[in-house]
Amino acid sequence: MLLGILLSRPVPAISAESVPACGANIDVRFDNDSKGVTNDVLMNWIKRASTAVCTYYGKFPVHQLRLQVHVRGSEGVHHGVTYPSDNGGLIRISVGSSTTASDLDSDWMLTHEMIHLAFPSMAEDHHWIEEGISVYVEPVARVQAGQLTPARMWKDVVRDMPQGEPADGDRGLDHTPTWGRTYWGGAMFCLVADVRIREQTHNRKGLQDALRGILNSGGNITQDWEIEQAFAEGDKATGTHVLTDLYHEMRDKPNPVDLAALWQKLGIQRAPDGAVEFNDKAPAATVREAITHPMK
Ligand SMILES: [Zn+2]
């Protein structure tokens, strides 16, 4: 009787696999409470996300990642969270059991979470830079890895970036912990920094060099750094002062960005249906192209 009751309940099936990711190891634990999306399909999704991150950073950001995939809930990918751990990181993420391979091919969330591994842990006031980097770099990394087209990426960026603009009463990125300023305000900081670095270096360096510089000097999620230390390392890698200067401009005052002028300069024109067209004669068209071009 007791046995019968136990067997009639859905018993979570736990299984584990290990995936190499450009010199690191991802230990995956699947926690399935129902039939549906298979582990093979999930493994392919994990490999795509790690490939995007490896492409952007030139290496996997931590030696060891523990990834817990909970198969439950409605279709799609939900509730990704990333934590530092002793020798690397831990990501917990949920995938609905009816999620298809094609849903997973267009997923951004796992790439976003893995990008969190590649930047040092910050104090609460600077949460915007952690989220901003993940929001800004995620589609760029996927385009560089051939998983997304530049036209699709810029369409979404042009549509979503205005959410990062300051609202009335804004006190700068360090003192305005709203959703818009944390995620998209942080992403806008990254976009402006990327364009400025590329303009100042005649397109020889970009934000990607700065972020690789921070990671290569040991600044991954396992480390607690001051924000100024991270920006100084990033600036050293590009031979500029862009990150430090822009931080001083945006940390404690609203400092809105003229996005319309920025899109025009980059040669991104939006059609009424939301699709974008590129103007290769725009003054910073080569900057736009360099952002999504894979780096050696
Ligand atoms: Zn995040």
In short, what is this structure?
Strand 2, helix 2 and strand 3 form a beta-alpha-beta unit. This protein has helices at residues 2-8, 39-57, 101-105, 109-116, 127-144, 150-160, 179-200, 207-216, 227-238, 242-250, 259-266, 285-292; strands at residues 13-21, 24-32, 64-71, 77-85, 88-95, 268-270, 276-278.
- Tell me the strand percentage band: 15-25%
Which outline best applies? Answer: globular
Biggest β-sheet description: 5 strands, mixed
How many helices? The count is 12
Q: Strand order within the widest sheet?
A: 1-2-3-5-4
| Oligomeric organization of the protein chains | single chain
Low-confidence stretches: 1-6
Q: What would you call the structural class?
A: alpha/beta
Which ligands, by name, code or SMILES, are bound? zinc ion
Radius of gyration: 20 Å
Explain the overall architecture.
With 296 residues, the chain is an alpha/beta fold. Helices cover 46% and strands 17% of the residues. Strands 1-2-3-5-4 form a five-stranded mixed sheet, with helices on one face. Strands 6-7 form a two-stranded antiparallel ribbon. α2 packs across α4, α7 packs antiparallel against α10 and α7 crosses α12. The longest helix has 22 residues. The radius of gyration is 20 Å and the shape is globular. It starts with a helix and ends with a helix. The N terminus is likely disordered. The structure holds zinc ion. Zinc ion binds next to α4 and α5. The site of zinc ion has 4 residues, from α4 and α5.
